Each structure stands twice: as C-alpha cells, then as structure tokens.
Amino acid sequence: MNTPHKDQQVSLGGIPTTFRVLGADTGDRLSIVEQTIAPGILFWPHVHSDHDQVNIVLDGELGVRIGDREWTAVAGETITKPRHVPHTVWNAGTTPARILEISAPATFEDYFLALSALGPDDAARAEIQQRYGVSGVPDWTEELQERYGVRL
User: How many domains does the chain have?
Assistant: First the structure.
C-alpha cells in the first residue's frame, strides 16, 4: 500500500485533502490533514470504531452534527468527534470552509489515501471502510440534504 507524503494533496469526493502532519512524524500517535469544503457540500455521515478526531475551523462556517447535538461552528472553533459517536459536517456558509482535522491514532491518513485512489467500486470502498473501522449513518444523509439543501 502507498503511504502519504507531507503536503501531498488528494481528493475525497471533491474535497481537497492535504496531509500536513504524518503519523511517521508522531510515532503514529496522530496525524493532521487540512480540508476545504465547498459551499453546499455534506461530508459523508459516519462513525469510527478506532479513531478519535478533532476539527479546528480555520475559515468559513460548518454545520456540525455529533450524536444528537447539532450546531454551526465558525472560524476558531474546535469540534471534538470521539470514536463510536456518529458525526458529520457540512459547509453551512456561502464561501469555502477550511479545517484542520487531527486523527488519533495516525492510521486514518492511510484511510484517506486509500479512499482517494478509488473509483466508483463500492465493494473496494466497503473493504477499506471495514479495515479502518468506519461505517455510515444512512438515516442522516437524506435528512440533512432535505433540511439544509446540501449534497454529498
């Protein structure tokens, strides 16, 4: 399997993702990516079994749903996404939103790299998601799309 390189950029369903801090630099304790989410884009609602994440909103504003809690996060705000808790974010504004995403442990950078190499092969996607302990939250997608006019 390929490994990400510092400052390498990949696309996750049209969301530019840049590897900023690699697990190799932190003893595999954490990794950091930078992502830019265009207006109207919903990040796939999901839950992690093996990773904790923190987002720091750098620019713009994000709609956030973590478990049963929902709010709008603005630049400077920190979002905590613990493992086993369903979550998603979407661009709630009219300009691109930019975030840093910190994942612990660091293996989530490999998940991003593997996903970026996929075409529309759902079987391969499911295998990668299972390998990294990620599963979808199917009820949320349609609900959030209808309520906020966002799309995956």
Answer: 1
Residue in 107, 113, 125 with CA at minimum distance from that of residue 18: 113
Give ∠ CA 95-80-67 in degrees, rounded to 5. 95
For residues 65-82, give the mean pLDDT: 97
Q: Note whether residue 4 is domain-resident.
A: no
Is residue 136 helix, strand or coil?
Answer: strand
140 is written with which tokens?
A: 């949320």
CATH code at position 141: 2.60.120.10
The pair of three-digit structure tokens given for residue 60, joined into one six-digit string = 């713009």
Q: What letter does residue 151 receive in the DSSP assignment?
A: B
Cα separation, 7 vs 26, whole angstroms: 16
Which pTM value belongs to this model?
0.91
Tokens 């884009």 sit at which residue?
41
Kindly report, residue by residue over 79-132, the tens digit of the pLDDT: 999 999 999 999 989 999 999 999 999 988 899 988 888 876 667 888 999 999
